[in-house]
Every structure is written in C-alpha cells, then in structure tokens.
Amino acid sequence: MFIWQAHVRPTSDPDSQHITVMNLHAAAERFYQGLMALWCACMLFWSPGTASAEPGHALEVGIKAWWNEWKKEEPGTPGSLSSGAVLVGPELTAKYNEFLFLRTALLFSRQDYEFSEQFGTNRFERQDAEVAAGFLVVPELAISGGYRRMRLREDETGWEQTLSGPVAGFTAVIQVYRNLTFHMRFDYQFTRLKQEAPSRYQEKSPGWIGELAVGCHFTRKFSGSFGYKSETNKGKDSAVRDIFSGPSVAAFYAF
Fold first, then answer.
1. String of b and e for 9-25 (b: at least 16 CB within 10 Å)?
2. Contact status, residue 155 vs residue 121, Cβ threshold 8 Å
3. Is the pLDDT of residue 28 over 70?
4. Cα→Cα distances 29→33, 72, 102, 195, 239, Å
5. Are 214 and 225 in contact (CB under 8 A)?
6. Within 61-208, where are the H helices?
7. What's the angle, vertex CA 190, arms to CA 6 and CA 36, rounded to 5?
8. Which pTM was predicted?
9. What are phi and psi of 36, to 5 degrees?
10. Chain centroid to CA 188: how far?
C-alpha cells in the first residue's frame, strides 16, 4: 500500500530543532486553549435568556457546508488532485455592543478526500477548528485575529498531519440590495505543519484563506449565504503547497 510521504525533509540538527518547535507548538496550544476558555465564558454570558435582554448583544448560531477539492503541488511533480470532499459543521458568533465579536467554527468531513494511485485509492478525513475575536472598524469592515487547527488523517496507513497557528485578517460586508449583501473575507495564516506518522516532521507552512459570498436575510432572525472559499499553505522547507477550494453554503439564526 502506498504511504504518503509529503513534507518530509531531513534536518541538520533534529534534536535542537525538535525541542524549539515543541516549545512553540506548546505555546500555540495554550493560546488556543485560552481562546476556547474565553469562548465558553462568552457562551455562558450570551445565553438565550440574556442575549435578548441586553441591548447591543446578540448570539448567531448556524451551520456551514463546504464542498472542496484538495490539490497537492510538490516540486518536480505535476501535482495531484483529489475527488471532492464535503465538510459540515456549526459556527457561532457572539456580538457585544454591536462592534466587538467572538466567533468559533468546527468542520468535519462527511465525505473523504480520495486520491487514485497506482496501487489503490488513498482516503483522507479532515477536521477543522477555529476561534477568532475582532471588532468593527466601520459597519462594513471588521478586523479579526485568532487561532485555527486543521487535521488530516488516513486511517488505513495511520498517516496524520496537522496545520495549526494564529490567523489574522478582515471581513467586508456590503449591502447590494435591500436584504442582499456581498461578503468578502481574507485571513493570513501564520501556521506550522506537523506530521505525526509514518515519521515525525515539522516546518513552517504559512498561507491564506479567502472567501467570497452572497448573503440574504430571509427574516430578521434567519439568514443564509452561498459563496466560494479557497485556502492554501506552503511548506518553507519542502516547498509543498496544499490548496483547498470549492463552493460553500451556510444558514444562520440570530437570538
């Protein structure tokens, strides 16, 4: 059976580099845990009973689906493209005084990525987690920063890879006609790639996330959107680039 060896490159001093990377990764994980604790506290504060009682506070709960393909570009090869995978999960946004917000999102693969190889098909499942906080500069523009973690795994071979780190960017919302809006999001990822199996390996792998969407407010509380999302990261040492792109759809309810 073919075993994926992407992002593997020897280092000149593996022990010292491993210790440094582990320290950085531990700090990032503590930052992520802190954001999650802040989010839980925020959820207690913005319970349905208090959300409607406090003017300027709101809680928006929704579900998002993203159909996308995974393209892998490696130096010296023509690259490879997977079949489409479907990611589905919840997204929650808590707003305070109409200009501060805290958002979290989870995505899980309901359909795996599949790569057809000479000796069979490789299937990969994916999980995403993201927490971000931000504020409105003007009603149409928000700036945010947070932390995200993506995990890819192939159960048959045990191959596992995570991409995690801080993200920062902006979201613009423009009203185009009555209850129709245009959304544009861009985030830069200060992320690091970590491979667990079949061999351990780590490297910086920054990239970006971009999404364009059209939103519609069907009622005062219920809204939805349809768009196109793309994200990419590229290893600093291996020069391997991962690209995920495809259409997305979401539905939200505001308390």
1. eeeeeeeeeeeebeeeb
2. no
3. no
4. 6, 27, 18, 16, 25
5. yes
6. none
7. 105
8. 0.78
9. -65, -40
10. 11
* Residue 91 backbone phi and psi in degrees, to 5: -140, 130
Contact call for residues 117 and 129 (beta carbons, < 8 A): no
Partners of 182 in beta bridges: 174, 214
Closest C-alpha to 35, from 146, 126, 115, 118: 146
Instruction: Measure the CA–CA gap between 132 and 230, rounded to whole angstroms.
Output: 18
From CA 203, how far away is CA 195, in angstroms rounded? 9
Q: What is the DSSP string of 186-225?
A: EEEE--EEEEEESS-EEEE--EEEEEEEEEEESSSSEEEE
Using CA atoms of 19, 20, 24, 27 in order, give the dihedral in degrees to the nearest 10: 60
pLDDT digits (tens, 9 = 90+) for 138-191: 989 999 999 999 999 998 888 999 999 999 999 999 999 889 999 999 999 999
Burial readout 104-142 (b: 16 or more C-beta within 10 A, e: otherwise) = bbbbebeebbebeeeeeebbbbbbbbbbbbbebeeeeeb
Closest to 230 (Cα-Cα) out of 70, 53, 89: 70
pLDDT digits (tens, 9 = 90+) for 193-228: 999 877 888 999 999 999 999 999 999 899 999 999
Query: Which of 123, 190, 187, 131 is closest to 163 using CA atoms?
Result: 190
Q: Is residue 83 a contact partner of residue 69, using CB atoms and an 8 Å limit?
A: yes
Q: Which pLDDT value is given to residue 171?
A: 96
Alpha-carbon distance of 126 to 152, in angstroms, equals 5
